[in-house]
Every structure is written in structure tokens, then in C-alpha cells.
Amino acid sequence: MIISLAEVFPVEVRATGMSLVYALGVAIFGGFGQFIVTWLIAATGSPIAPAWYVMACCAATLLALRGTPETARTNLL
């Protein structure tokens, strides 16, 4: 995953781009995850609501990966 993330950004902004994407992802999905899961359980009354949250995050990740260009034979510099 780290290699794929690095390939998305140009060399000039690679470190900044990677750190921002990582920090925002951790803050949004990791930091607010407990609140979202607690709200989902309270709203639905289902104890398996966290599984739906995880599946939704996986689906969003797969959609994002489909939009990532292939860089197998291109110069990244």
C-alpha cells in the first residue's frame, strides 16, 4: 500500500502528500471510528453494525483503487 501511495504523488510533493493522506486517514477513520460505531449501534440497535462500517470502508477503498492509474512501466521521477 505504501508503494501505491507513493506512486500517486509527483516527486516534488511525495513526502508531503503521503504524510497528509496518512494523517487524515488515521484521524478520520481511526479517530472518529469509535464514535461512528457507537452511533451505528445506537441508531440500528444491531450489535453487528461495526461490521457494516468496516465493509463500507473496504468498499470505498476498492473504489479508490479502481481509479488509481497503473505505473508499472513508467518513469516515476
Characterization of the model:
- The chain is mainly alpha-helical.
- The chain has 2 domains: 1-31, no CATH class; 33-69, no CATH class.
- Helix content is 71%, strand content 0%.
- The protein contains 4 helices and no strands.
- It has helices at 2-8, 14-31, 33-44, 49-66.
- Helix 1 (2-8) crosses helix 2.
- The chain is elongated, with a radius of gyration of 16 Å.
- The two termini are 19 Å apart.
- The relative contact order is 0.10.
What percent strand?
under 5%
* Tally of strands: 0
What global shape is seen?
A: elongated
* Separation, N- and C-terminal Cα atoms: 19 Å
Radius of gyration: 16 Å
Give the class from helix and strand content and strand pairing: mainly alpha
What oligomeric state is this?
single chain
Biggest sheet architecture = none
